Amino acid sequence: MANNTTHTTEYRVLAKVLLVLMFLTFLTISITSFHLGAFTVTAALLIAGLKGFLVLSNFMHLKYESLLLRILVGMVFVLFAVIVLITFIDYAYR
Amino acid sequence: MSEKVIHVEEHRDDEASKLGMWLFIFTELLLFGGLFLVYSIFRAEYPTAFHQSSLELSVTIGAINTIVLLFSSMTIAMALTAIQKNDPKRALVFIGITLFCAVAFLVNKYFEWGHKIEHGLYPGSTLMPFLDRGHLLYFSLYFFMTGLHALHIIIGMTLLIVCYFKVKSKNINSKDYVLLENGALYWHLVDLIWIFLFPLMYLIT
Question: pTM of the prediction?
Fold first, then answer.
């Protein structure tokens, strides 16, 4: 049976991930307090993306999941990026 | 006498359960993704109004809620670790902490929304139609997106309460814990959405 083959993430590892996430939250708040326009937006979104990646790979155990699932999750974000791109192109040239 | 051995095959497929949960999570991601897209377009169209409106939000409350959610995301992941290690008592404590964090988040949200509503800022209020288009869009999106997120918190809590009692009754155990795994996945999704909501609504001004 294929059941119970899941990887067990140790408490230590989870606590470390939380510390990194907290640090990144602190970092976003301090960066965005500078008001540097486009740079601030890019930095905030990049940090949010990194936080999201950490949550997906560690808390949601994607690191240890099958390749199929990892590809599927990746495709959802690619799909979303394509939708955003097409909408903004449409918006910019109408 | 010959002995008959009846082998009962258990009808269970944890991989498929998890895949099903992930497919559901995909639809949730695209639901919120669509809202983020609407937000970005209108932000590009009304940059000053969005800037002024976002200053109305308290970064402190938003930051506290971010930390509460990140922490609860870790504790629910730890609950899964505990159940995998066959330690249901510890798992119950971790689920309890997660539920406590969820309530703390909602209480925070209650005060935050309450403050806005006191100032007449809520969908359908008498003040809202007098706001210019940019402000109106910002606050409508703010209430809709954080409201939909809060609804997800409540659904997640319900799911985790079910898990709590199933761990207690040993229906979720070290050999069969896919329900807790899926419940935890849902809770991480709620956290994941907030990770993007917080900078977009509160920080980028």
Answer: 0.91
